[in-house]
């Protein structure tokens, strides 16, 4: 926590802060005073604000003996961070997505390209990738194409139909919302097409598949049940990582599929080769589109 100095300055017309004003110790020199919503004052040289922020370029008065006071409706943690970025001072690690988004909004309001570029370079840090829909919302709003694609890839671990995501999805413009749903649907449908049509799965898909051991016609309903479960899994989590993890071996549909054997008592050869099938599934998933 910062220690602020308490100073009683000369009367300033229109100022609505407390009579005994807190000045931030890191910002105590300059001819412009920015007053936060929490009453803390930040003294900044006007020429720094003019060369870094389009908003102040034409709105600040010229330097004069009396301090020019600007009230800023921003919390201290946001105002201080943006001022540090403007002044080239060391900035602390981001604590939350709220802090980053509020800082970006202030930098945009001030037309401050320097802080905006720093925020852009930080927005794909692990702490923010944990909320890919929020990242996607911000990136699409400000037109950051690379970050939009990164966010769309990380969204593949989510079920967009889940109620917990509706608030973030409602923030999106319709074209960006549709692009995201299209990516998720494309992966699911291409995966299903692969399971239904790739020659490597012919042993399970062909209705008249003979047993390779004795020629007896195979009952492939266990494979069909496994495919249905895999489709649902891809629909709910288009990333597909659960389909190539060890967890898939614990599905009842998987256990039944791998246990399926030729009905000929003199043969009883397994219908499917788990290792070959799982390798084929992994290859299919790796070939799916990963970004909008």
Key structural traits:
2 domains, 292 residues, 5 strands, alpha/beta, Potassium Channel Kv1.1, Chain A
Describe it for me?
The protein is rod-shaped. Residues 1-19 have low confidence and may be disordered. The protein has 2 domains: 1-122, Potassium Channel Kv1.1, Chain A (2-Layer Sandwich), CATH 3.30.710.10; 185-286, no CATH class. It has helices spanning 46-52, 54-57, 76-87, 97-110, 113-122, 126-129, 132-142, 145-154, 166-169, 174-197, 202-205, 221-236, 252-259, 274-286, and strands at 5-7, 21-28, 32-35, 40-44, 68-71. 48% of the residues lie in helices and 8% in strands. It has 292 residues and is of the alpha/beta class. It has 14 helices and 5 strands. A 5-stranded mixed beta sheet has the order 1-2-4-3-5.
Overall structural class, as computed from helix and strand content, comes to: alpha/beta
| Total DSSP helices | 14
Shape, principal axes of CA atoms: rod-shaped
Estimate nothing, just give the exact number of structural domains.
2
Largest sheet at a glance?
Answer: 5 strands, mixed
Helix content range of the residues, please? Answer: 40-55%
Radius of gyration: 30 Å
Element-level helix/strand string: EEEEHHEHHHHHHHHHHHH
Number of strands: 5
What is the spatial order of strands in the main beta sheet? 1-2-4-3-5
C-alpha end-to-end distance: 42 Å
CATH architecture of the largest domain: 2-Layer Sandwich
- Residue ranges: pLDDT <50 for 5 or more in a row? 1-19
- Provide the CATH top-level class of the largest domain: Alpha Beta
Estimate the mean pLDDT confidence.
89
* Assigned CATH superfamily of the largest domain: Potassium Channel Kv1.1, Chain A
CATH fold call of the largest domain: Potassium Channel Kv1.1, Chain A
Share of β-strand residues: 5-15%
